[in-house]
Amino acid sequence: MLCLTTPTRTGSASCWKHLSLAFDTQSARSPLGTRIPGLFALALLLCSCMSVLHPIRDEQDEARRALAMVPVSARERVHIFILHGLDPFDYANLAGLRGYCADLGFPNTWLGQFYHAGRFAAEIRSVAQDDPGAGLVLIGFSAGANAARDVATSLQEDGITIDLLVYMGGNTLADVPDSRPENVRKVIHILATGYVFKGTAITGAENYKYAQTWHFGSPSHPHTLAILRRELLEVAERVGAEAGDQPMPKDASSADRRVSYDLSSRVAWDFLEQAQRLREP
Question: 3-state SS of the chain?
Fold first, then answer.
């Protein structure tokens, strides 16, 4: 499914409201034959309710505050394309991640399945043609990481530059040149614990390994959200600077907000390990 509407980050209240409507008391008291539609609706609705297990939690860090100062016109010219993996119940909460990007001020955020890669590539070509200076961001989770890589690679011959390519849970990605497309300004590779495919660091990418988080928890991980805030800020500022947009007014306390973000050195992330230093157990 392609998603262009803004979903809630967790969707819990909405989920339980719709579940109660789908499986009401009358259906529960009815014979099995008349309960099947309600049960079928219940199963379908569960596909969007598993996301509550990985809620998106915002944090008012420096990048978050700085994003609010970036002109709206610049943020609206950043287009984010999120490709999901094999997760029919949205356990990884990519819908919440899409909603979070919208909350950060990026309304042009797309969410699709990995098999929508071709449609995303076509949309990116259209955006690049209409607005050559637009910011382009590709995010892929699990099988969607491979699809995001393929989309970026397919755009090379069109001369289209991707500002940011983020792999989340791309455990099957190899450390080969194709995983670091030449038309991508920056690649971030986030791995969590994998039980079948362990994943490997990618040369030329910014690699992170979550030692105590499993596969489906990587998109909603606080460190992942911090990385996205930082990187989306850079893309939006690049777009605004090239267009000559003036930053929104800010107080003196935030005058020196352009700092070097070194998330891996923060005390809060002591449980993380750099992917390059990992060893097989």
Answer: CCECCCCCCCCHHHHHHHHHHHCCHHHHHCCHHHHHHHHHHHHHHHCCCHHHHCCCCCCCCHHHHHHCCCCHHHHHCEEEEEEECCCCCCCCCHHHHHHHHHHCCCCCEEEEEHHHHHHHHHHHHHHHHHCCCCEEEEEEECHHHHHHHHHHHHCHHHCCCEEEEEEECCCCCCCCHHHCCCCEEEEEEEEEECCCCCCCCCCCCEEEEEEEEEHHHCCCCHHHHHHHHHHHHHHHHHHHHHHCCCCCCCCHHHCCCCCCCCHHHCHHHCCEECHHHCCCC
- pLDDT, one tens digit for every residue, the chain (281 residues): 455 433 444 444 334 333 333 333 333 333 434 454 554 444 444 555 655 666 777 778 899 999 999 999 999 999 999 999 988 888 889 999 999 999 999 999 999 999 999 999 999 999 999 999 999 999 999 999 999 999 999 999 999 999 999 999 998 999 999 999 999 999 999 998 756 567 899 999 999 998 777 778 899 899 999 999 999 999 999 999 987 766 655 543 333 333 333 333 333 333 333 333 332 32
